[in-house]
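Standup notes, protein team

Yesterday: finished cleaning the Ruegeria alba set.
Today: Maleylacetoacetate isomerase structure.
Blockers: none.

Input for Maleylacetoacetate isomerase:
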Amino acid sequence: MTETILYDYWRSSASYRLRIALNLAGIAYTAVPVDLVKGEHRSKEHLARNPQGLVPVLEIDGLRLTQSLAMLDYLDQTRGLGLVPADPAGRAQVQALAQAIAVDIHPVCNLKVARHATDLSGGAEDMPGAWMRHFIRPGLQAFETMLAGFEQSPYCCGDAPGLADICLMPQIYNARRWEVDISDLPRLLSVEAACAKHPAFAAAHPDRHAPA
């Protein structure tokens, strides 16, 4: 059995997702930090792992995987995590929730995108926070409305955490970091409370992985 290695950054949303999933799967792994602030993701060493220069990168089962949604799908398929329903309709609905965050909100709030926006603004003092709030709040409002299509339950789509929860929790972390008002989103707050009590989510929280 080859060692499982996760190259990540403690505040990366995509890395946070993988930490949750690895914990849910009960997979022990070695975390290798890649400091985005210091530009370590642009090093030759890391670009050899991922030509996109992104985190996370997951080495598992003799494979080297990139892109968090692809990695989550691999873990779901090989470890039977039940992250999405088996029926095609339910699967599509849950994937839509996950992608509403991972495909729509997250990319425009990526660190390099926000930095570029700040540069274009001439370094406006509140630019990073204003940029994040501009995209995160309406995105989470839409997510809250989408959840109305599912019965009330501890997690987004049932009594056990799934793909939507794994994508949602890192985005809520970012919302709180950038002082986004989510006080009027009761379903999201309910899911957040349930996930916070789950050991796999608690152990993956960025505060548990921050540099000393």
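Follow-up from PR in the comments: The two ends are 31 Å apart (CA to CA).
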